[in-house]
Specification:
Length: 844
C-alpha cells in the first residue's frame, strides 16, 4: 500500500472519527507552541524597537559623545585629526498638556552637518522636498511622524502644546518625519530653535562623529577627551545599543524560560494522547501484527500519529502565538519603560527563524512524548492485542530507582544553584530550576503509590473509595505521568505566586523604610522618561516657605562611567528619618561613613554587577577630573536591577558646580494636613501643572501598580500552562475508562448503578488531582527557593527573603482540585453509560 494512503487510513481518518479527542490533542500542543512563539515575537519586537531608537538618533555615526557639552567647543571637535564628520544633537522629552500621559522625544538637529549621519528624512507635507526656509524661519516648526499626526488628528499647520519645565509652548506641524522602524513619539526641529525653546542655549546633549578608522577609534577618542569635560562619556552607538539590550536581556530570558514550561508539559500530554490511542486501537495493532507488520512498523504508526497531532498543533499554535503576541507586546512595552528605558513597541516583528525553531520544538515534543507508549504498542504480542479482556498496563510495581533519581536530582539542584551563584553563570540557575521540576516529576510515582495505599487503608470499609484508591495504584505508571504533568503546572503556579508574594513583602518593607516622607514632588517629564528634567529653584523656595514643612530632602541622578560601564549616580540630601538598610548590618556605622568626604554607597545589584565591596575604592569621573571615592557600604535597593551609586549632596558639591535637583520630598510637622499642603501647592504656585505632587499613599500606589503590571505576562503564562495541564486529566481518565471497559462492564452486570460508576471515576479524578496538587505544592516551594535565591540573584542582584503565603496557596489547591474533578466529568459520564455486550463477550 502507498505510504501516504496507509497514513491517511490509519492516522488521519482515525483522527477525524474522534473529533473531540483530536481537538484536545491538537490544542495541547498548540498552546505550548503559542506561548513560546508569542514570547519570542515580543522579545524580538522589543529588541528591534530598542535598536531602532538608538539607530534613528545615532544614525551612521561611528562614535558618540554623551553628556552636557558646551556648543562653543563644537568647531574644535570637528577639527580633531581622524574625525571625518561631526554633528551636534540636543534631545528633550516633553509632555503634551492636552493629551494626558502623552510625550514627544524632541530631537534638535543641524541640517548642515547631519546629512552624513541621518537615517530619517524630513519631508514637507504634500511634497518630497525639504523647505529649508520654513525650517530656519519658523521657531515653532516641527517634524512629526505620520503615526503621531494621525493618532492626534493633526494636519499641516496644526498646532499643539508642549510643556518644557514650567513653560508651555506651541509647536506647529510643518513637516513629516519619515523614520523607518522609529518610534512614533520621535519629532525633529532645528537645534537652534530647540535650544531657545527649552532654555538650553549653548548646550548640547551629545555629538556624533564619523572617524577615518572605525575599527580603531581609540586615538580619536583620546584626542576628543582632551577637549571634552571629564563627565562626558565616549562610546560607539553599537555599544550603546548593546547596553540597552543587555538591560532587558534578563527580563526577556526569564519570560522565555517560563514559556518553555508549556512545551515541557506538552511532552506529558502527548504521552497520554498516544497512550489513549494505543488502548483504543489494540484490535488494529493485533491485526497488523498478525498480517506481518513488524514492531518497527507499529512504532512508526504511533509516532506518525503523534507527528500528525504535532504538525496540526504547530500550525494552530503559530496562528495563536501571533495573536497572543499583540497582547504581550503592550504589557512588555510598559514594563520595559517602567523598569529600564523609555520605549514604545509599536510594531510586531516576526523572527522567521523562530517559526522554524518552534516548529522543530513542537515536532520533537510530540516524538519524545510518544516514544514510550509507541514502544509499548510495538512490544505487544498479536494475541494479547486481539484479546480485549487483557489490559495494557505496566508499572504496577513501584520502582525504587525513581526515588533514587529524585534524591540525585535534589543534589544536582543544590549543586547547580551553588555554582550559578559562585561562578555567576546564569544558565546554571535555569538548570537548577529545571532540575527542581524534574525532581518533582520523579517524586510522582512514590507520592502516587503512597497516597493511594494510605487512602485505601484508611477507607478500607468504604468499597467505592477503596476501589478508586486501588485503581490509582494499579495504573501507577500512567497516573504518575499525569500527576507529574499537572504537578509541573501547579509547581509553576505556586512558585511564581510565592516569589511575587515574597517580593511584595520585601518591597513593602523597603518602602516602609525608604518612602517615609509625607509629600513627593517631581516634574511630569520625569514621571514618563525617568529623572531627566529639573525642578525650578522658585518651586523649592515656595515649598520651603510653608509653615507645615519641617524639613526637605532632594534627589537627582546623572550617568557616570565606572570600570568602563555606565552607572547611575544618585545624589541625595536626605532627612535623618530616611536611612538605607545595609547588607551585613551595621547601618549606623556605615551611614556615618557615607557622610564622610569622598564616600559613596552602592546598591546590591550594582555591587554584584561590578564586583564592589564595602571598603573598596573606585574612580568616578567628575568635572575636576577622576576622583577616588570610598565605598562605605552596600545597601538594599529595589528601584532598578541595573544598580545605583549614591552620594551625599555635600560630597557632590565638592566636585560638581551644579545645585539642580530633579525631585524633592517634604516632611511635615506633626499634626499637619497632607491634603491641605498638596492643595495649596497645586493651586498657589504658578506653573504647578508642570509638576507631580504626590502624597506618600499615592506614590506607594504608583509603585504597587508598576509592580502588578510587571507580572502581568507571568500571570498569563501561568494560566495557559495550567490550562494545558488540565487537558491531561481529561486525556488520562479517558484512557483509564477505555482500559477498564471490561471491569466497568462486570461492575454493571453485578448491579453497579450509573451513579456509582460516575462516583467511582470522579473519585479517581479527585485523587489524581490531589496527588498532583500535593506534588505541585512541594515542587513549587522548592522551585520558589530557586527562583528567589538563585535566578533572582544571578539575573537581578536582589536579596528577597522567601515567604510562603499558605493562606493563598491552600485556596489555590482547593480550586485546582475542584477543576480537576470537573475535568473528570466527561470520562465519568462515558463510564456511566450502559455497558456494551461486545465488551462482555471479549472476556470469553
Amino acid at each position: 500500500m502507498n505510504p501516504l494512503r496507509f497514513f491517511y487510513h490509519l492516522v488521519v481518518r482515525d483522527a477525524l472519527r474522534h473529533p473531540i479527542l483530536t481537538s484536545i490533542n491538537i490544542l495541547s500542543v498548540a498552546l505550548g507552541v503559542a506561548v513560546y512563539l508569542a514570547i519570542q515575537v515580543t522579545n524580538y519586537s522589543a529588541n528591534r524597537a530598542l535598536a531602532a531608537s538608538v539607530d534613528v538618533i545615532a544614525g551612521r555615526a561611528n562614535l558618540q559623545a554623551e553628556g552636557e557639552i558646551d556648543d562653543a567647543i563644537f568647531p574644535e571637535l570637528q577639527k580633531v585629526p581622524g574625525c571625518v564628520a561631526a554633528t551636534p544633537l540636543l534631545e528633550k522629552i516633553v509632555t503634551l498638556p492636552d493629551y494626558q500621559g502623552e510625550y514627544l522625544h524632541l530631537l534638535g538637529v543641524d541640517p548642515f552637518t547631519d546629512r552624513e549621519f541621518r537615517t530619517f528624512e524630513v519631508k514637507k507635507l504634500g511634497s518630497q522636498k525639504m523647505d529649508s526656509d520654513r525650517w530656519f524661519s519658523d521657531p515653532s516648526a516641527v517634524a512629526v511622524t505620520k503615526q503621531f499626526a494621525q493618532s492626534h488628528h493633526l494636519d499641516a499647520g496644526s498646532t499643539f502644546r508642549v510643556r518644557l519645565g514650567e513653560t508651555v509652548k506651541s509647536l506647529r506641524v510643518a513637516f513629516l518625519l519619515d523614520a523607518p522602524e522609529g518610534d512614533s513619539h520621535l519629532a525633529a526641529m532645528d537645534i537652534g530653535w530647540l535650544q531657545e525653546l527649552s532654555g538650553d542655549v549653548g548646550r548640547l546633549t551629545s555629538v556624533l562623529f564619523r572617524v577615518s578608522d572605525p575599527l580603531d577609534p581609540a586615538p580619536v577618542i583620546g584626542r576628543l577627551k582632551q577637549l571634552l569635560p571629564p563627565t562626558v562619556s565616549m562610546q560607539t552607538p553599537q555599544s550603546r545599543s548593546s547596553q540597552v539590550e543587555k538591560m532587558v536581556a534578563g527580563f526577556q530570558l526569564n519570560l522565555s524560560a517560563l514559556s518553555m514550561a508549556s512545551l515541557m508539559v506538552g511532552v506529558f500530554l502527548i504521552y497520554n494522547t498516544v497512550s489513549a490511542s494505543v488502548v483504543r486501537r489494540r484490535p488494529e495493532i493485533g491485526i497488523l501484527r498478525s498480517l506481518g507488520v513488524s514492531r518497527t512498523g507499529v512504532r512508526a504508526l504511533f509516532l506518525a500519529e503523534a507527528a500528525f497531532y504535532s504538525i496540526c498543533g504547530v500550525i494552530l499554535g503559530i496562528v495563536l502565538g501571533l495573536v497572543l503576541a499583540t497582547r504581550c507586546i503592550g504589557i512588555v512595552s510598559e514594563t520595559i519603560s517602567n523598569l529600564y528605558v523609555l520605549t514604545s513597541i509599536e510594531q510586531s516583528y516576526v523572527p522567521w527563524n523562530q517559526i522554524v525553531v518552534v516548529s522543530v520544538l513542537g515536532l520533537v515534543t510530540g516524538c519524545v512524548g510518544a516514544w514510550v507508549p509507541a514502544a509499548q504498542a510495538a512490544k505487544l504480542p498479536p494475541l494479547q492485542a486481539l484479546n480485549l479482556g487483557l489490559l495494557i498496563e505496566r508499572g504496577q510495581q513501584f520502582r525504587p530507582w525513581t526515588l533514587v533519581l529524585f534524591i540525585a536530582s535534589i543534589f544536582l539542584v543544590v549543586l547547580s544553584g551553588w555554582f550559578a551563584l559562585w561562578w555567576r553563570i546564569r544558565i546554571l540557575s535555569f538548570a537548577s530550576a529545571a532540575l527542581a521540576l524534574l525532581a518533582a516529576c520523579l517524586l510522582s510515582p512514590s507520592l502516587t503509590q503512597g497516597l493511594g495505599s494510605l487512602i485505601a487503608t484508611i477507607f478500607s470499609r468504604q468499597y467505592l473509595i477503596r476501589l478508586s484508591a486501588q485503581n490509582l495504584v494499579r495504573s501507577l505508571y500512567r497516573n504518575s505521568v499525569t500527576s507529574a504533568a499537572l504537578g509541573c503546572a501547579v509547581a509553576l503556579l505556586v512558585s511564581v505566586s510565592i516569589m511575587i508574594f515574597s517580593f511584595r513583602l520585601t518591597l513593602d518593607r523597603w518602602m516602609g523604610r525608604r518612602l517615609v516622607a509625607d509629600i513627593f514632588v517631581t516634574t511630569t517629564e520625569n514621571q514618563i522618561a525617568g529623572f531627566d528634567s529639573f525642578i525650578s529653584p522658585n518651586l523649592i523656595a515656595f515649598l520651603q516657605s510653608f509653615p507645615e514643612v519641617e524639613s526637605m530632602a532632594s534627589y537627582r541622578e546623572l550617568p557616570v562611567t565606572i570600570k568602563g560601564q555606565e552607572v547611575t549616580l544618585g545624589v541625595t540630601m536626605e532627612s535623618p528619618k530616611n536611612s538605607p538598610e545595609f547588607v551585613g548590618g551595621g547601618d549606623a556605622e556605615k551611614e556615618r561613613a557615607w557622610h564622610q568626604p569622598n564616600s559613596v554607597i552602592a546598591s546590591e545589584p550594582l555591587a554584584r554587577r561590578l564586583g564592589l565591596k564595602a571598603g573598596q575604592r573606585i574612580l568616578i569621573p567628575t568635572p575636576r577630573g577622576d576622583k577616588e571615592f570610598n565605598v562605605a557600604g552596600i545597601f538594599y535597593d529595589y528601584t532598578s536591577d541595573q544598580g545605583l551609586l549614591m552620594m551625599q549632596r555635600q560630597n557632590f558639591g565638592r566636585f560638581w558646580a551644579d545645585r539642580r535637583v530633579q525631585a524633592v520630598s517634604l516632611y511635615l510637622r506633626p499634626g499637619s494636613s497632607v491634603e491641605a499642603v498638596l492643595e495649596r501647592a497645586r493651586t498657589s504656585y504658578p506653573g504647578a501643572e508642570a509638576y507631580a505632587f504626590q502624597s506618600n499613599r499615592e506614590l506607594r500606589g504608583v509603585v504597587e501598580r508598576i509592580f502588578d503590571q510587571t507580572f502581568q505576562v507571568t500571570n498569563l503564562l501561568r494560566g495557559i500552562a495550567l490550562a494545558v495541564a488540565i487537558i491531561g486529566i481529561v486525556l488520562n481518565l479517558t484512557v483509564i475508562v477505555k482500559e477498564r471497559e471490561r471491569e466497568i462492564a462486570v461492575l454493571r452486570s453485578l448491579g453497579g448503578s450509573s451513579f456509582q460508576l460516575l462516583f467511582l471515576i470522579l473519585l479517581e479524578a479527585f485523587f489524581l488531582t490531589l496527588v498532583a496538587v500535593v506534588l505541585g505544592i512541594i515542587g513549587g516551594c522548592a522551585l520558589a527557593i530557586v527562583l528567589t535565591n538563585v535566578i533572582n540573584v544571578t539575573f537581578f542582584g536582589w536579596t528577597i527573603p522567601v515567604h510562603f503565603p499558605w493562606t493563598d496557596i491552600a485556596p489555590i489547591g482547593a480550586l485546582l482540585i475542584g477543576v480537576g474533578v470537573l475535568a473528570g466529568l466527561f470520562p465519568a459520564l462515558v463510564a456511566a453509560r450502559p455497558s456494551n455486550l461486545r465488551v462482555l463477550r471479549s472476556m470469553v
